[in-house]
Design brief:
This protein is of the alpha/beta class. The protein contains five helices and six strands. The chain folds into two domains: 79 residues, no CATH class; 54 residues, Ribosomal Protein S8, Chain: A, domain 1, CATH 3.30.1370. The strands form two sheets. Strands 1-2-3 form a three-stranded parallel β-sheet, with helices on both faces.
């Protein structure tokens, strides 16, 4: 669904390495949307004083120090959701009903926050539009 190209920007041949990787990917006859949506990541920015990427959409990180990793995670999540046609939603459910079981079967449950005082839960899911449509039909409230 997504290609993430991580480069060591301190390597003296980083530009040549990028071209080699792109050439190999093109020779694999991958769908063009994969190459067009590729996430370009420049690693080791902590080793280059005031580093600014030359590529327009490149993300800068330092895996060693954790710099930029949250932004990278968000970008990957956004692109995966776009390419798969899914979305992240939080739904409130009644724990006495079958909703939670249904969500575990038909979606990816990320988080369940139970409110024991009223027998409900707030459930964060990754779900396709079609599955969410079925959910709303089955559980209109």
């Amino acid at each position: 669904d997504l290609i993430v190209h991580v480069r060591d920007i301190t390597h003296p041949e980083t530009i040549l390495q990028k071209e080699t990787v792109l050439s190999v990917l093109r020779n694999l006859n991958l769908p063009s949307h994969l190459l067009d949506s590729m996430v370009e990541v420049h690693n080791k920015v902590d080793l280059v004083e005031r580093y600014k990427p030359t590529e327009e959409n490149a993300l800068t990180i330092s895996a060693l120090h954790g710099h930029g990793l949250e932004e990278l995670k968000q970008e990957i999540e956004k692109k995966i959701l776009t390419s798969t046609g899914k979305k992240i939603l939080t739904v409130n459910i009644n724990l006495e009903g079958p909703q939670l079981s249904w969500l575990y079967k038909e979606a990816t449950v990320q988080e369940v926050e139970v409110m024991p005082e009223d027998g409900t839960a707030r459930v964060k899911v990754i779900i396709s539009s079609s599955a969410f449509g079925r959910y709303k039909n089955l559980f209109p409230n």
